[in-house]
Write a structure and sequence with these properties.
Distance between the termini: 39 Å
Strand content: 25-35%
Strand order of the largest sheet: 1-7-4-9-2
Largest sheet: 5 strands, antiparallel
Structural class: alpha+beta
């Protein structure tokens, strides 16, 4: 363990990330720190230290917090995906082999909607901004499309994946051919 010149243990990036997630989920639920501490059977000072990223909680403590927040414990431990844009180009599959690849992990605490978007050639569709915190994921099945945030669109082809903040202006545009796109909307659940 490294001790700083002030004699205190430095804040770890993991503890800071977990603390930020606890605070975010608590605020999303409109819960005060005192209420979360009460529901989780923790002292207010302990919760304050955890949210500040200065604690080293046990699994039992994180489990109590997750139960009090009505979320899976994994929501407090999983790395949050960048809100994007995140681009994953298509990859070639090996002939005669089954292949699986993780394109994007979407944490719990989200409402998920799965849409199929079919666009004829020469079409542009303006995306209406969704609820705050929504992440939109596009997976192109066939065709070519320019899509994404108005300020940073990407050219996508079959097998390409793009994830971006869906709460900002965005669009989809085909050129000379049609496109078939799977769209997944992940919106934070607010209680």
């Amino acid at each position: 363990m490294t001790i700083t010149p002030s004699g205190r243990q430095p804040v770890s990036s993991t503890a800071a990330a977990v603390g930020a997630k606890i605070r975010l989920r608590r605020q999303q639920r409109g819960m005060s720190a005192a209420e979360l501490a009460r529901r989780g059977g923790l002292g207010k000072a302990t919760l304050s230290q955890l949210e500040a990223g200065k604690g080293n909680p046990t699994i039992d403590t994180l489990d109590a917090i997750a139960i009090a927040l009505s979320i899976p414990i994994a929501d407090l431990l999983a790395s949050e995906a960048d809100t994007g844009p995140v681009y994953r180009p298509s990859t070639a599959a090996e002939p005669d082999e089954v292949s699986r690849e993780l394109l994007r992990r979407i944490s719990s605490g989200n409402s998920l909607e799965l849409w199929r978007l079919r666009m004829p050639p020469g079409t542009e569709l303006a995306g209406v901004p969704h609820a705050t915190g929504t992440i939109e994921h596009l997976l192109v099945s066939s065709g070519y499309v320019t899509a994404g945030p108005v300020q940073a669109p990407r050219d996508l082809g079959p097998g390409d994946m793009l994830a971006f903040a869906g709460d900002a202006p965005h669009f989809y545009r085909t050129d000379t051919g049609p496109a078939d796109i799977t769209v997944v909307l992940a919106s934070p659940i607010t209680v």
